[in-house]
Amino acid sequence: MERTYHILVVDDHAEIRDLLKRFLSQHGFTVSVAVDGNEMDKLLAHSPFDLIILDLMLPGRDGITLCKELRVGSNIPIIMLTALGEDIDRIIGLEVGADDYIAKPFNPRELLARIKSVLRRHFAIPNVTEQISAVERYHFAGWTLNAITRDLVNPDGILITLTSTEFELLLAFLTHPNVVLKREDLLKLVQGRGADVYDRAVDTLISRLRKKIEANPKAPKLIKTIWGGGYQFSCEVSHD
């Protein structure tokens, strides 16, 4: 990596904090640690961070609560640590805006790979954009997505915050309008996801995106579910 990324580890287990600080520092990262949400808030108030590793089970405000709070106006990448690795934990984490998740106990090298993947997605133009680099802005149903700056503006001119995963998912649909995309197709288009991403995770990400761009997420008109087929972006898309 050309630049040094600053990572914040939020975990109430001293062993995990110490392990990750040593391991990630050895791999070129600047690492700060916090034991809970209060310490996290203090660090965020004084230092910019490039990524947060957030434990699900924390004293006081848990990881889900903290993730929700962070997602109010912030698209900072978040990787959640789940104690049991159960599907429900992963889905809840994705629903509230986490970019990825990894179950405890984990191999530090796997976490390192996840971190690099999330940082690439967040700070670099994704593959699908590189393939159509001449296109800067996409227009659909009164919305505008700038593929270079990643700014999404709604029909009222209001800027809508997208996480890196939400941006790539929307871009995948905009570059394939009126095409039925299966879950595996979407996983290929949304680069960098871990090998254990599963169908329900895709559904959760779709649900997240619908809440941001659909007038009625429960009766979506833009991202339609094709039963037995996948999803289809059912809207005319123009670009310049």
UniProtKB/TrEMBL annotation:
InterPro entries: CheY-like_superfamily (IPR011006), OmpR/PhoB-type_DNA-bd (IPR001867), Sig_transdc_resp-reg_C-effctor (IPR016032), Sig_transdc_resp-reg_receiver (IPR001789), WalR-like (IPR039420), WH-like_DNA-bd_sf (IPR036388). GO terms for biological process: regulation of DNA-templated transcription. Residues 6-119 form the Response regulatory domain. SMART domains: REC (SM00448), Trans_reg_C (SM00862). Residues 135-235 form the OmpR/PhoB-type domain. PROSITE patterns: OMPR_PHOB, RESPONSE_REGULATORY. Gene3D superfamilies: 3.40.50.2300, 6.10.250.690, Winged helix-like DNA-binding domain superfamily/Winged helix DNA-binding domain (1.10.10.10). One of its GO terms (cellular component) is protein-DNA complex. Its main location: cytoplasm. This is Two-component system, OmpR family, response regulator. The lineage of its organism: Bacteria, Pseudomonadati, Pseudomonadota, Gammaproteobacteria, Vibrionales.
